[in-house]
Amino acid sequence: MKARVVVTLKSGVLDPQGKAIEGALKSLSIDGVAAVRQGKVFDIEFDGEDRDRVRKTLSEACERLLANTIVENYAIEIV
Amino acid sequence: MKARVVVTLKSGVLDPQGKAIEGALKSLSIDGVAAVRQGKVFDIEFDGEDRDRVRKTLSEACERLLANTIVENYAIEIV
């Protein structure tokens, strides 16, 4: 079973990497971009097919390792 | 208009960061994980509402800046 976790910065948290990308896009004359925020994505493969267990395991993984929940949000998507 | 770009390593390309996360999950006794691959996500806000233009701009941004198309795939999602 496959799952995807997307970790993004909470709104209000400064994102210098996103700002740098915004600047780089402008300097490449790629116009129309109002804002860029960068995050991380984890594609995780699980043994077994128990969706509830996978969701529970992923929540724990996010809380303990994948996301810093003080400044980041996470979203779990089971494929 | 908002869009999300997800950049992931092509299959076959080694992902040491993913491997490290896999090891860390194991050492936290978070079990059942068979494989982890890490990628990047960009949340991009656009001026205007022309979907075709946004898609074209994003393809160009991916090819020229956001993804290294030799070793990475990208997926564009317009929200």
List the helices and strands and how they pair.
The structure is a homodimer of 79-residue chains.
Chain A: E1 2-9, H1 16-27, E2 33-46, H2 51-66, E3 72-78
Antiparallel strand pairs in A: 1-2, 1-3
Protein model, in words:
Two copies of one chain form a homodimer. Chain A has 79 residues and is α+β, with helices and mostly antiparallel strands. Chain A has one domain: 2-Layer Sandwich (Mth169, Chain: A). Chain A is 35% helix and 37% strand. Chain A contains two helices and three strands, in the order E-H-E-H-E. In chain A, strands 2-1-3 form a three-stranded antiparallel sheet.
Name some characteristics of this structure:
Mth169, Chain: A, homodimer, alpha+beta, 2 helices, elongated, 79 residues
What shape does the CA trace of chain A take?
elongated
Which CATH class of chain A applies here? Alpha Beta
- pLDDT < 50 runs, ≥5 residues of chain A: none
Q: What is the CATH third-level topology name of chain A?
A: Mth169, Chain: A
In a nutshell, what does this entry contain?
The structure is a homodimer of 79-residue chains. Helices cover 35% and strands 37% of the residues of chain A.
